[in-house]
Design brief:
The protein is of the alpha/beta class. Helix content is 50%, strand content 14%.
């Protein structure tokens, strides 16, 4: 299967852009803010929350980073005007982290302050391991400056995550816990599927023991079951945690969670950089290419299904 996944990735540059766009439509709201708005409206009607992400990690200068900031300010204004149940997720590379720490911090503070003025929330996403220290340092600085409307993401694939949880525990952070899609060296990250699952469960237990609000972000049905079990054992009410999923991935599982009374938040990316986002995500982790291929086939071939 790994060979097939890598083969799919190698063939992607030869696939017409229009075909990639058709495939990505299920996973990306569209190129414009109005596309994200209508997607979130539909999700809210299904009793699902959302988190909007403006695509644009491949910024090259401060002007492009400033444009991403303006896009997020537009998103918050739209959320407020349309009374949407949504917050935002933001990648620090899109705000200029690779251009300079101070540039990124100034841009991030602007977004977080605007969110606070509208009673909204910012989730700082986690990228590859080269950004982990800066991401957690920026999060701590924002919290020290009095910004409480901000959370962070931790990845179960990283060996350091339990240590990071211990170091953040005094802040009782709001955390999205995911497996992580980045392919990292074995000394940095777990490679074995079972080891990643086990670290996810340990991390979730550690976060809840520390009194954190956790977004249990997974499409892995076994981890969903473990998340429900742990939440019940901790005596959590439905408003004390939430599940999180990606737009277009395992929607039947998400529907089931909502029917069972769990809170569910769906990640809604949009923007004109949809092609770069799609290609980069597939190249970073060939398993995603195989998943999308199998999922696409499953929609057209009766009896085929795919579990992630």
């Amino acid at each position: 299967m790994a060979l097939l996944d890598r083969t799919i990735v190698r063939l992607l540059p030869a696939v017409p852009k229009s075909v990639v766009q058709q495939l990505s439509r299920r996973y990306i709201a569209g190129p414009e803010l109005k596309d994200a708005r209508e997607t979130v409206r539909r999700l809210n009607a299904e009793r699902k929350m959302a988190t909007i992400d403006v695509l644009g990690e491949e910024i090259r200068n401060e002007e492009e980073a400033a444009a991403i900031v303006r896009a997020y300010l537009d998103v918050f204004a739209d959320i407020e005007r349309c009374d949407l149940d949504s917050n935002v997720s933001i990648k620090l590379s899109a705000l200029g982290l690779k251009l300079g720490y101070d540039i990124c911090r100034a841009n991030l503070e602007m977004v977080v302050a605007d969110a606070a003025s509208r009673g909204n929330f910012v989730r700082i996403d986690m990228e590859d391991s080269s950004t982990t220290d800066d991401t957690l340092h920026l999060y701590r600085e924002l919290r020290a400056a009095g910004h409480d409307n901000v959370g962070v993401v931790l990845q179960a694939t990283l060996r350091r995550t339990l240590s990071d949880i211990q170091q953040l525990a005094d802040l009782r952070p709001s955390v999205r816990l995911c497996k992580g899609i980045y392919v990292e060296p074995p000394e940095i990250a777990y490679r074995d599927f079972g080891a990643v699952r086990a670290n996810y469960v340990r991390s979730l237990e550690a976060l809840l023991d520390a009194g954190c609000y956790v977004g249990i972000a997974t499409h892995d049905e076994w981890l969903v079951s473990e998340g429900k079990r742990i939440a019940e054992e901790c005596g959590l009410a439905p408003e004390d945690y939430e599940f999180q999923m990606l737009l277009g991935v395992r929607p039947e599982l998400g529907d089931r969670l909502v029917r069972e009374g769990h809170r569910l938040r769906v990640y809604v990316p949009f923007g004109r950089h949809w092609y770069e986002y799609s290609m980069r995500r597939l190249q970073e982790n060939p398993k995603i290419a195989g998943y999308i291929a199998a999922d696409t086939i499953g929609r057209f071939v009766p009896g085929r299904s795919n579990g992630a």
